[in-house]
Amino acid sequence: MPFLEIVRTRRTSLQVIVDLLDVGKKIKKTSIVVGNCTGFAVSRLFFPYTQTPMLLVEHGADLYQIDQAITNFGMPMGPFRYTRMVDLVGFGVAIATGIQFLENFPDRTYKSNLISVMKEDKRGGESTCKGFYMYDDKHNASPDPDIVKLVEKARTMSHVMVDKKLQNLSDGDIVEMIFFPVVNEACRILAEGVVVKASDLDIASVMSMGFPSYRGGILFWANSLGSRYICSKLEDWSKQYGEIFKPCAYLTDCASRGTSL
C-alpha cells in the first residue's frame, strides 16, 4: 500500500502533523491529512462501493455482470471479487467495521441478508475455496452457479421483489449506480471538512482503492460528468430504491448552481 492516512484530532498539534508527513516521505508513502470520523477518508469514501452492489443483486441484477462491468471500467476487481479481502483481515474485523457504519450511517447502509446466507453456507472466500466465486488451489476465481440459490434465499429473507429494470442494466448503468453513491459520500466528506481539498480524495481513490488513474480520481471523474447529471440520477434512484441513493446537501447545492465538486 503506497498510501498513508494521517488522522488529526482537535488536539493534534501542527508540529505532530508536519513530523508525520515527514515520516510518510521517509517510508515512501503518499500521505494525506484527514479528520477523525468513522472510516476516516478511504474506508468511508468507499463503503457505498460494497453497499449498492448488494442492493442491486437482491433486486435482480446479475452479480457477475456487476463485477465484469466494474473491471471493464478500470477497477482491479469488482465489488464481489473485492470481498476476497475479507478473507485476509478476517470476518471479525469486517463485521465490526460493518456495525460501525450501520450505527453511524443507518440511512445509507443497505441491510443485506446475502452475507449472512453466505456464512451459513460456510463460504469464507479463498480460505474455504468458496465465496461469491469458486477458487482453485492457485487462487484463481471462477463463477459459482450455486450462487443463484443463495441470492434467491437472501432475497426471500429481505422480502424483496425482482425489479426487471435492474435485471436488464447496461454496463454503463452499473458503473453509475455503484460509483455515484461513492461520489455522494465524497461530497459529504468534503462538506464535513474531513479532508481539506477534493484532490485529496482523488489521490486516495487511486492509490488506496485502485480507482483507474487515467480517470483522474473519483471527483475528477465525477466533474467530467457534471454535478447536475449525477444529482438527478441519484434523486431518481432514491425515489425507487431508498435513502442509500439520496443526494446530500453539498451535491444538491453544487447541482443547483452548476458548479464542480
From TrEMBL:
Annotated Pfam families: 3HCDH
SUPFAM superfamilies referenced in this protein's UniProt entry, alphabetically: 6-phosphogluconate dehydrogenase C-terminal domain-like
Top-level taxonomic group: Eukaryota
Molecular function per GO: (3S)-3-hydroxyacyl-CoA dehydrogenase (NAD+) activity; isomerase activity; lyase activity
InterPro entries named among the record's database cross-references: 3HC_DH_C (IPR006108), 6-PGluconate_DH-like_C_sf (IPR008927)
Example GO biological process: fatty acid beta-oxidation
3-hydroxyacyl-CoA dehydrogenase C-terminal domain boundaries: 39-135
Organism encoding this protein: Escallonia herrerae
Keywords: Isomerase, Lyase, Multifunctional enzyme
Any GO CC annotation of this UniProt entry: peroxisome
Name of the protein this chain belongs to: 3-hydroxyacyl-CoA dehydrogenase C-terminal domain-containing protein
